[in-house]
Amino acid sequence: MAQLLAPALPGRARMRRSAPAAVSTVALIVMIGVCSSLQPGVLTVEGLTLVLSATVPLVIAAQAQMTLMAVGDIDLGIGNFVGLVTVVSATLLVSSPLKGVLVLAGLVAAYAVLGLLIHLRQVPALIATLGASFVWLGLGLFLLPTPGGTTPGWLASFGAWQPAGLPAPLVPLVVVALLVYLLSARSALGVRMRGLGSNPVALRRAGLRPVASRVAAYATAGVLGVLSGLVLASQTGGGDVSSASSYTLMTVAAVILGGGSFAGGTAVPWGAAVGGVTLGLVSVVLSLLDVRSDMQSAVQGVIVLAVLAGRVVVGKVLR
Amino acid sequence: MHVDNLPAGGAAPPGTDTGPAGPPPVVTARGVTKAYGRTRALAGVDLAVRAGEVLGLVGHNGAGKSTLMRVLAGLEPCDTGTVLVHGRQASAGDFRTVRMAYQETSLCPDLTVAENMWVSSRHCLPRVRWRRAASDAVRRRLDEMFPGHGVSPRDRVEDLSLSRRQMVEIARACLVDRLDLLILDEPTESLGPDAARSLYAYVRRLTEAGTAVLLISHRIREVLSVADRVAVLRDGAVTAERPASGLTEPDVLGLMGAHVAAPPTFGAPTAAGTIARDTVAELLGATGPGLREVTLRVGKGEVVGLAGLAGQGQQEVLERLWRPVRRDTTVGVSRAYVPGDRQRSGVLPLWSVGDNLIVTALRGIARRGLRRPAEERAVVADWVKRLSIRGGAEAGITELSGGNQQKVIVARAFASPAGLVLLDDPFRGVDVHTKTDLYGLIRQEAAKGRSVVWYSSENAEMAHCDRVYVFRAGRVVAELTGEEISEERIIGVSFAEKGEDD
């Protein structure tokens, strides 16, 4: 009898786990519906491109945040880091491409070192990444004190890329989510990273080194942060270290909306993508609804709370 | 896949000392000592585990069993002395054939069963398509060990029940290309009797193939029935090593240094369990997930036991009494709950013993919302003394041994003003002394008019109850009172339908 019951049980558990992302998806569809009723042009390829493009860097940054939340850490420096990358791509990457690439690689390495320090010195990630965020901000202001600069040609042409019959932003959204999914959910390295967030003692007993998992997670987050910054620069056409400072908390919200948790252990690449797009769309809906811009943040917060409440309710029902 | 191979028989390399005692030792400890700070966990242990035998290791909590196991499994180096694997001084790699199944499990709850197998047995899995290989291997091993286990390799560990998690943990330990020594730490504490029997059948198959098994358990009768030899650990040293045949439970308890528990002398349950008492809580035909038509009542000052095989609805009853939201449940008094899974839902790990103990009683002691530290300290000191909690009120809760932590959790419930205390199998893995103290506490508090509802997976504990409800498949199948309560009777009733006694 147990054999018969077995397939039925995990189904429910899996449903419970994907419920948050499902709630976010519903919210997403509702918002697209509202948008298109206000502005029928939204449902065309051009409309969707316009609406979605602002969410791409946010979603990629959310994948970085998700990677760190999967090992049980949190990144409070991602916003300024993305800002710093836009600055590097608007200055060094134009004037001396090789130097620019080296600096970007150095930034990824800096993330890995940050992970190493957090692990070896037992510093809470919250504090270490918060401290790092000021370093990113300082470096960005040093390189480019006022917003400006130009992005290299290839980046600009990526920003202007318009494939036929398909909203361009969908491509980076899906490709990055797929890559992060393959890494975190399908690969052995992903098992090690989630295992670290889930039960580091078990990893150690099995002879795996938790420090390696943590450094790998931070390096991954660094790579994703650089990607996010490049995409953002390609859209804005310049560098501004504070252009992405709101990402820090938005990405956390995106991961939570997508079903992640602060406790670590779970990787939700698709959820983070849905959560990020949902969050990004909120501001589009609000501008279409003519909500006063000084009220937008507050209304955005209320909507996020409502979606989170929906997640809790669905979780209770499915228990 | 080579993870599925049973270990090669008599797997000792040539040239090891084949002593006069037959098979060669697989792992030998010589004069092993180990200290943590100022506490001396091991004080010179000499122990040999031979190929093809089951060695039972018994001792109180704090006798050094866990430390010894970690040293034998190569997880921790010893301070002085040597550990030999196959007669050679062991280096880290030699311990790969020594595997251990932990009592609290060493699984990652957020990973699937198959992924957990990769974590611990990745050396024996292919680099590509390891997920498929791990799934097949674990499914086959589980089928072999626990027929009808109901675990799928794709289940996440956090979704499994405690007993299934334990099965996975044991299968995890056995999943290796060559297994010389299997260390089982309290393997049956969360397993039901059926699974325990399957486990020991498998253990016997393993030993026939030449693997050595080290079995650690508080259930002495179980150790005696399974083990070939029994080693007694006391104060960090092996004080006795005997063949298991001919040894009885009191013998072993004596060797362990128990002033052998005179069975319950403290205020034995009132024989006339049916005295008319005020009802403080009752279920009337409660039906729901895991429960069918359960009717029971709890009187004032009564200790009510919930018995039967594990997972037959007892915990659901506790849940109902704890949160009486449905109309079929009425509870007239305030409640306190003692969880069974102390690691997960019991202790507040950053707090001291005193803070952990007083947290539920705080409100009762406080006046106008302000805490009264002097009174709190007095209450804490009283409980620490009553239960002789080692380390005192100021110690950090995680510095305590498991048994002492459990005392704090139980004291926390009884320190609160609650009129009904719910015990969710709180004495799993607790040593005899602590249990005796806590049984005494329960009877004393009941005599003061507190009611207790007590679920236990150990039927012998039910002797301390006034009345026992025996559960099977979500139903109450028997209500025993006073003299009727006995282990044999409970087992008989639990199995009655299957027509077999244990």
Automatic annotation (TrEMBL), chain A:
Keywords: Cell inner membrane, Cell membrane, Membrane, Transmembrane, Transmembrane helix, Transport. InterPro entries: ABC_transp_permease. Pfam families: BPD_transp_2. It is a multi-pass membrane protein. It is found in: Cell membrane. The keyword Acetylation does not apply. The chain crosses the membrane at residues 21-39, 45-64, 76-94, 100-118, 125-144, 164-184, 215-233, 245-263, 270-289, 295-314. PANTHER family: ABC TRANSPORTER PERMEASE PROTEIN YPHD-RELATED (PTHR32196:SF21), ABC TRANSPORTER PERMEASE PROTEIN YPHD-RELATED-RELATED (PTHR32196). This is Ribose ABC transporter permease. It comes from Microbispora amethystogenes. The lineage of its organism: Bacteria, Bacillati, Actinomycetota, Actinomycetes, Streptosporangiales.
From TrEMBL, chain B:
One of its GO terms (molecular function) is ATP binding. Residues 27-260, 275-498 form the ABC transporter domain. Keywords: ATP-binding, Nucleotide-binding, Repeat, Transport. It comes from the Bacteria. Gene3D superfamilies: P-loop containing nucleotide triphosphate hydrolases (3.40.50.300). Residues 1-27 are annotated as: Disordered. PROSITE patterns: ABC_TRANSPORTER_1, ABC_TRANSPORTER_2. Residues 7-20 have a biased composition (Low complexity). InterPro entries: AAA+_ATPase (IPR003593), ABC_carbohydrate_import_ATPase (IPR050107), ABC_transporter-like_ATP-bd (IPR003439), ABC_transporter-like_CS (IPR017871), P-loop_NTPase (IPR027417). This is ABC transporter ATP-binding protein. It comes from Microbispora amethystogenes.
